[in-house]
Amino acid sequence: MSGVADYRHRITIQQQVTVTDDEGFTTTTWQDVATVWAAVEPMNARWRVFYEAAAVNAERDTLIRIRYRPGVTQDMRVVYGQRVFSIRLVVDPEERHREIQLMCREVVDGGN
């Protein structure tokens, strides 16, 4: 879709993990999976129409593109600087395994 020069933002992909301490108490936290170069783009009108039809609210939605990486799922999140994004949809355009498009929603309350 776009060239390498578009991947100019450094993001971290995280997954949620549950840890049990020595006393048997569990804590849920986020663990880094990978730090990669990405293109972080506000969703434009074309994407909004498509994803609104797919029941994804376009308010505060952002498209994050990364080189193809297997194992990225909707259960993960993206950290970009101080901003946190929940992953709403993972798309491998044309299933060519060159790029993954992450349709994300910014988390403004610190949760997911």
Would you kindly provide a written description of the structure presented here, covering whatever features stand out?
The protein has 112 residues and is mostly beta strands. It has one domain: Thrombin, subunit H (Beta Barrel). The protein has one helix spanning 45-53; strands at residues 9-20, 26-42, 61-67, 76-80, 83-91, 99-107. The protein has a 6-stranded antiparallel barrel. A hairpin with a 2-residue loop joins strand 4 and strand 5. The chain is globular, with a radius of gyration of 15 Å. The model has no long low-confidence stretch (mean pLDDT 84).
Ends distance: 29 Å
What is the β-strand count?
6
Total domain modules: 1
Instruction: State the secondary-structure class.
Output: mainly beta
N-to-C series of helices and strands: EEHEEEE
Which class in CATH terms?
Mainly Beta
CATH architecture classification: Beta Barrel
Mean residue pLDDT:
84
Largest sheet: 6 strands, antiparallel, barrel
**CATH topology label:** Thrombin, subunit H
**Rg computed from alpha carbons, rounded to a whole number of angstroms:** 15 Å
